[in-house]
Amino acid sequence: MNEVFFFEELLQSEDDAITIVDTEKKVIYWNNAAEQTYQITKEQIIDQSITDFFSHDDLMVMKVLRTMKPVKNAYHRPRKDKHVVVNTSPVFNQENTLIGVISIERDVTHIVKLNDNLESTSQELQELKQKMSPSSSGSPFAKLVGESQALHQMIRLASKTADTDATTLILGESGTGKEVCARAIHDASNRKNAPFIPVNCGAIPQALFESELFGYESGSFTGAEKGGKAGKIEMADGGTIFLDEVGELPLDMQVKLLRVLQENRIYRIGDSRGKQIDVRFIAATNQDLEKLMQENKFRSDLFYRLNVIQLTMPPLRDRKKDIELLAETFLKQFALKYQASVPKLPAETMEVLRQYQWPGNIREIRNLMERIIILHEGTTLTSQDVLGFLPVSFSTPPLARTESLPLEKENMEKTSIEQALEICNGNKSKAAKQLGISRVTLYQKIKKYNLSD
Fold first, then answer.
1. What confidence tens digit (pLDDT) does each residue in 359-368 have?
2. Same domain, yes or no, for 358 and 434?
3. Which residues contact 263 (CB under 8 A, 6 or more apart)?
4. Which of 66, 179, 269, 299 has its CA 20 to 30 A from that of 332?
5. How is the beta sheet containing 98-107 ordered, strand by strand?
6. Given a cut of 90, is residue 173 above it in pLDDT?
7. pLDDT at residue 399, rounded to an integer
């Protein structure tokens, strides 16, 4: 019967809170994670009625005991201070008689609070920006620094787009400045004094998508706030919502978003009447949406709704003449921030920066210049100095001429990712930051190059 001990250890080692309740509402199992999540010890709760510790209306296990139907991947608030994603299932014996319920709950309180703080901070920054520069004569597109033809052509198209309410899709690699472009379009439009609400679709847990984007009515689900809560789309009413990494939207949310785009009406969870809204939609992605459509991962009708105006952010490797201007701009910016002097950039140093491929684009060169200001000692940044800040693979001998340019680039990119993961001891968030790319992009590259986790 050693299997029992293995099973017990498995349940106790699980990071999610696991609760088992019998048909009399008595708790017969409560693992370590449940103790940590709810600050209730096994000694306190085992063999006691679960309703002695939680309100009957706030318990998913009571709903499943009543309906005898499982609940999968649902957002739930068992307490006012706890947000969880819950999977709860009825348990039946050989005679198909209900004998209890098992509930597995993942604590996402920290994620929800961070998201709320981010939402609040973004709104405060937007309001502060409007107060600080209400009559700025400069174009909002001036934040897109560069003199290359590719960038100026994109800015001309974006400027024309700003004068309309047309739904816009911004394509481009990670780090090319898609959100900066979206903000510039908003700031150049007649909606500039209304909210600009950015939403990173790749950062929202799937179970929270609907409530985050569309909001909910009071009492629409267990734990819902009294008075309900507006979703991100409703918060952007009169202004602009920016859906970054839109390719990460689950298919069921794509259907709901399509309905909003078609009807200009938002339906909170638990509301069948809906509310008329006036929102400008700008979406962005670094993925190939047409390929996702072929794989049935992205709806074609939603793609055509979003793709009224299409803008493509050029990668930095196609903007070689902008590299010097960007380097000097970021060096001055961070020298001011850290009260440091700006190092000189000789011609040979600039040549090294121009030869580098910049897989992380603007984000990568910005991060590099910040590191240089913080760590570099001396008044001049030599070519050897800058090679010390770039990925090790860049300073290795070039590949044989038989290698094609795309393959050479992929080999360099793969090596850079391997080295970043090794330096960061496998921490993908730190590695992504060092590489100047998003964590979602890093996961995609790891999969592409078959790198071990």
1. 999 999 999 9
2. yes
3. 274
4. 179
5. 27-30, 17-22, 98-107, 82-92, 71-79
6. yes
7. 40
